[in-house]
Amino acid sequence: MYDFGLVGLGVMGRNFILNVADNGFSAYGYDLDEEKVNSLKTEGGDLEKVDASTNIKTFVKNLKQPRKIMLLVPAGKIVDSVIESLLPHIDKGDIIIDGGNSFFTDTDRRESELQNRAINFFGAGVSGGAKGARRGPSIMPGGSKSAYEHIKPIFEAVAAKYEGEPCVAYLGPKSAGNYVKMVHNGIEYGLMQLTSEIYDVLKKGGDYNNDELHSSFAKWNSGRLQSFLVEITSEIFKQEDDFTKGRLVDQILDKAKQKGTGKWTSQNAMDLGIPVPSIDIAVSMRELSALKEERIKADALYDRPVVAHMDKAILEDLSEKALYFSFIITYAQGLHQLADASKEYGYNLDISVIAKIWRAGCIIRA
């Protein structure tokens, strides 16, 4: 019998389940795609603690009770569909964990419906991307506190560690975990927008080339701006393009997409009456960037502003200060929203605990 079950063996799911097995827990996966099941078996071939199936009955039958089943599938109707497919086969007291970016009100609905069946439901935000899922993500769970005790040993083992302390903690009842992950992503939107704007200032206002941009961001990453986003920004400037003789960053279209979590953060902040202008603007700028054809037409009609170039040393110093200040402001806006939402929705969030579990593993770690 296996300690942990995981539904959805895409890159994130496969990496997470291998992480579980690496940390001493047996894990069983399930996916309708036989190729993904076989990929897991191949990659986990040296691990006796990993197996998978395309048959949901076989999957459930192989799990220890109370069953701990995590879903790493796209948010929305697919989550409901997977839950419905599990219900005929699981028992009272079993635990279902949604590890995707589900909207928090969907999590409240699902928790209420499953509570009526005596099934425990968790919304657990997972941040760190595919690499984090494999080597240690930041995990943000919310749901039944008593049921969390069954999940806690596994989550603490697989989570990222900061000075030995796991970057996971029980956050609160109902959708507390999904809500915290939503705001985490909203903050991420803000930080990414600010980083791109400073890049634009240095490139156009200081005429920086890619090597100089790499040097500046790398230097900032060794100081008070040390963070995952500043680190990977510094690295992108050195990345050669596989298809041209230039750098990859110069080939990337200035057109962004979004999955919805930043928008949800902004919308919910408005519902609560919380000002989060850095996050609001970041969402709007992504939407504006998507209007590529309109921007090309406007560029042909209007003159560009004349940029007065500054001394590079002065510009770099001012840019570092501006980015540092703006990062702090963006975090403050997100934490303000969490504090007020905690009162509104009865989460009883501990902001200091949230800050601690963001210190490693997650995208906004800093």
**Rg measurement, Å:** 22 Å
Instruction: Please name the CATH architecture of the largest domain.
Output: 3-Layer(aba) Sandwich
The CATH homologous superfamily of the largest domain is termed NAD(P)-binding Rossmann-like Domain
Q: Could you give the order of strands across the largest sheet?
A: 3-2-1-4-5-6-7
CATH hierarchy, class of the largest domain = Alpha Beta
Return the structural class: alpha/beta
**Number of extended strands:** 9
Q: Enumerate the spans where pLDDT stays under 50 for 5 or more consecutive residues.
A: none
The dominant shape is globular
Largest sheet: 7 strands, mixed
Folded structure, characterized:
This protein has helices at 11-22, 34-43, 56-61, 77-86, 104-115, 129-135, 145-158, 176-205, 210-221, 228-236, 261-272, 277-289, 292-301, 312-345, 351-357, and strands spanning 4-7, 27-30, 50-53, 68-71, 95-98, 120-127, 138-142, 161-162, 165-166. By secondary structure, the protein is of the alpha/beta class. The protein folds into 2 domains: 4-174, Rossmann fold (3-Layer(aba) Sandwich); 180-346, N-(1-d-carboxylethyl)-l-norvaline Dehydrogenase, domain 2 (Orthogonal Bundle), CATH 1.10.1040. The strands form 2 sheets. The protein has a 7-stranded mixed β-sheet, sandwiched between helices. A two-stranded antiparallel sheet has the order 8-9. Strand 4 (68-71), helix 4 and strand 5 form a beta-alpha-beta unit. Helix 1 (11-22) packs parallel to helix 6 (129-135) and helix 1 (11-22) crosses helix 7 (145-158). It is globular and about 70 Å long. It starts with a strand and ends in a 9-residue tail after the last helix.
